[in-house]
């Protein structure tokens, strides 16, 4: 879930949604007129909060997932897998797959992003790391799609198509395209060699909720989960597009997670330096993808709220690409696109 949505009264699906919740019967006694925007995400899914007459669930969330664009079944499936892992996810209370509606337990409106500060960060991130390890330990092969080379490549391709081509209005030369392919191939080789676990794919401060009962975090927006590289969700968490921490602090949290995960039996590399390289290279894949997605959300979907987050994602991208000899052609490409000259520096 992400930015608040606009007034939905002109939307023809609202009447359909209200009719559905009203028809759930006396056990729920939902007031359809209480329906109010809760949040939306970067897809066609939207979320509404309703008041109910149910003692255990005085409020609930209705997911609106238009069947022409979305499928509720992955959400239900992953909610089951993650719930079995012992983490807090919204319980599916009622469903109508034909119409594309789910009634979900309400995890509140306090995101990690709204609560993170210097005093709360260590505790909140410790909870998030503990939950992440539980999810990863629950991995069962064949239960989720593979985060394979084809999918990782499709995500990387969003960068030249949407960020470079549409957002910057640039056309890469043949030599630049070859350099980018070389960087992509190096990154993908690293990503695919990592241990494979359940991957949420957006395990960040807007999708983690601070709960009144302290069973943090409440975890949202997991329907695109896959089995893939073990560092991916750690990147989402600590190199978040929406909040920045200095690298010394990132390292501290990452070391604590690595130690916790290895102690729990996850097959992470025994050398933290190797693990950190995996984390950085996985991060580069994610951040190139995110640059493309944020540009696409603006140019194709008219959602300009993500543009403010581009500089931080670009900063992450440059920092990593500038640290490794195999990735330096990406820095040269970014310099050329931005028309800047950078002094020579040390690389690994």
UniProtKB/TrEMBL annotation:
Asked if Nucleotide-binding is a keyword of the record, the answer is yes
Q: A single GO molecular function, which one? A: ATP binding
Q: Which keywords fit this entry according to its UniProt record? A: ATP-binding, Nucleotide-binding
- The residue ranges of the Aminoglycoside phosphotransferase domain are 36-262
| PANTHER family linked to this entry | N-ACETYLMURAMATE_N-ACETYLGLUCOSAMINE KINASE, TRNA THREONYLCARBAMOYLADENOSINE BIOSYNTHESIS PROTEIN TSAE
Q: What is this protein called?
A: Phosphotransferase
Q: What InterPro entries does this protein's entry cite?
A: Aminoglycoside_PTrfase, Kinase-like_dom_sf
């Amino acid at each position: 879930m992400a930015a608040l949505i606009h007034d939905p009264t002109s939307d023809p699906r609202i009447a359909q949604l209200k009719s559905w919740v009203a028809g759930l019967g006396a056990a729920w006694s939902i007031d359809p007129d209480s329906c109010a925007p809760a949040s939306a995400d970067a897809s066609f899914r939207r979320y509404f909060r309703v008041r109910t007459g149910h003692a255990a669930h005085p409020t609930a969330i209705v997911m609106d997932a238009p069947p022409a664009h979305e499928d509720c079944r992955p959400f239900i499936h992953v909610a089951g897998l993650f719930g079995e892992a012992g983490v807090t996810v919204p319980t599916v209370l009622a469903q109508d797959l034909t119409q594309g509606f789910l009634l979900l337990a309400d995890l509140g409106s306090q995101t990690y992003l709204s609560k993170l500060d210097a005093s709360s960060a260590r505790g909140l991130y410790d909870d998030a790391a503990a939950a992440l390890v539980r999810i990863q330990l629950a991995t069962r092969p064949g239960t989720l799609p593979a985060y394979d080379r084809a999918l990782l490549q499709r995500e990387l391709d969003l960068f030249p198509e949407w960020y470079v081509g549409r957002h910057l209005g640039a056309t890469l030369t043949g030599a630049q395209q070859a350099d980018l392919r070389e960087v992509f191939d190096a990154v993908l080789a690293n990503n695919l060699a990592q241990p494979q676990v359940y991957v949420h794919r957006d395990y960040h401060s807007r999708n983690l909720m601070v709960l009144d009962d302290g069973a943090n975090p409440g975890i949202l927006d997991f329907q695109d989960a896959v089995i893939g590289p073990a560092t991916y969700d750690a990147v989402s968490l600590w190199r978040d597009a929406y909040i920045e921490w200095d690298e010394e602090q990132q390292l501290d949290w990452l070391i604590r997670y690595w130690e916790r995960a290895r102690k729990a039996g996850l097959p992470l590399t025994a050398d933290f330096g190797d693990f950190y390289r995996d984390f950085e290279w996985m991060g580069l894949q994610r951040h190139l993808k995110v640059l493309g997605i944020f540009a696409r959300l603006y140019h194709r979907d008219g959602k300009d709220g993500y543009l403010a987050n581009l500089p931080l994602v670009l900063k992450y991208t440059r920092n990593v690409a500038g640290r490794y000899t195999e990735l330096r052609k990406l820095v040269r490409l970014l310099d050329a696109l931005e028309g800047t000259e950078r002094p020579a520096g040390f690389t690994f």
